[in-house]
Sequence to fold (150 residues):
Amino acid sequence: MCQECYTNRSRITPLLHPLDCLENHTQYICGSCGRFICIERDPQRHLQRWNFPFKSAEIAKLYLRTADYTEKKACGIYEIRNSKGRVSYKIFPDVQDLTLYLHKNKDKFCENTAPVFSVGEYREFENTEVRKVSADEIEKYLSERKSSDQ
Fold:
């Protein structure tokens, strides 16, 4: 597992609309394994990809590094349930942010206020970049992604 971006699949992201994301969004480029992770802010809601709910803790983990980097602290993934029993996973910088979210969203709750995953301590890494990637980098990344899927 990459100690910087928390996965052993260095070409797994972006998950949704990869070409569009790589061409149009700012990417966190892991300085250790070279994985691209969307760190773009949504222009309408001003949220970053890591602010949205995820279907699983494993998917949330793919975006956790961008939260850690943005907040400059070790964030956590929390299991959230709604009143209908639907489970999702959200990243929060700390338990205070989780509590604020739950206060604003009365139909949601978190049984355990401890994160299901956190690295515990924030670290900076050499060679990390945050920027738009070039067409050549996108082509190379996507070809490496294709070959790693096989």
In short: The longest strand covers residues 76-82.
